[in-house]
Design brief:
By secondary structure, the protein is mainly alpha-helical. The protein contains five helices and no strands. InterPro entries: TMEM234.
């Protein structure tokens, strides 16, 4: 049971810590010029995001968290694993984002 808790903590950590870095690595993708063709726009966006290591490294770590999550679900109860992993992910995202200079979510975002 303790190993499942540690795995869910690791999943929440991998998901949560990487989210702000993925967001930082993908900044500017929306400013890729409109070429007049959906296909050319797609290729331009793929080239832009494909060349950013600051996007791909956190994305790869995030996917490692997803693989660990699927592996953990084989032995954990889904009614426990889903809320634990998601709530830890949210908490680690907020903490990491704040450490990177982002604002903490306000009451309007938390629906309090």
């Amino acid at each position: 049971m303790l190993d499942i808790a540690a795995q869910l903590l690791a999943v929440g950590l991998l998901w949560g810590v990487t989210n702000p870095f993925i967001r930082l690595g993908s900044q500017g993708i929306e400013s890729v010029g409109d070429t007049g063709s959906k296909w050319r726009n797609f290729v331009q966006e793929a080239r832009t995001i494909g060349s950013r290591w600051r996007y791909w490294i956190p994305f790869g770590l995030n996917q490692c968290g997803s693989a660990l999550y699927v592996w953990t679900l084989q032995r954990a109860s889904i009614t426990v694993a889903v809320p634990v992993a998601n709530s830890l992910s949210f908490a680690f995202t907020a903490i990491t984002g704040y450490a990177l200079g982002e604002k903490l979510p306000g009451r309007s975002k938390l629906n309090v």
